[in-house]
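Shipment paperwork, digital attachment
Item: protein structure file
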Amino acid sequence: MTTQTTAQSTTSTPLDPAPMSVRGKLAAAWGSLIFLILYIDYFHLYQPGEIDSIRNGVIFEFEISGALMSVFFVIIALPGLMVLLSATLPARANRITNLVFTSIYIPLIIFNIAGTTADYVFYYVLTIGVELAIMAYILRTAATWPRTAAVTK
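Attachment content:
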């Protein structure tokens, strides 16, 4: 807020509430999601036995291999690429891409709760809940993308 002070009065001008584009909203949501995913995965390492499990060549009951690491890369690359795609794709392709990738990604996020122990149920419900809320926002934003008025002659 800008304040101008004169000898006689003080006036305030409101901030300009410039609207954010749908592309900007979607890119911001995907950016938030990728940061959360990375930090949640990082904090997972603080759980007892996780680092020892990795040192023993196992991640979440799966033997560590090039194929597994490639799958993990694709899972993490999707939201990272969606930041770029949401900001640059034409509107129609953007809308479809966001609806499809979000719908595919929701089950992947929910899968993270599999195998959790009672001590960490609240943590996973909380973190997955926030991720799902962001994805619901993405779905709603893409699904309700405003249409331009039809030009009539």
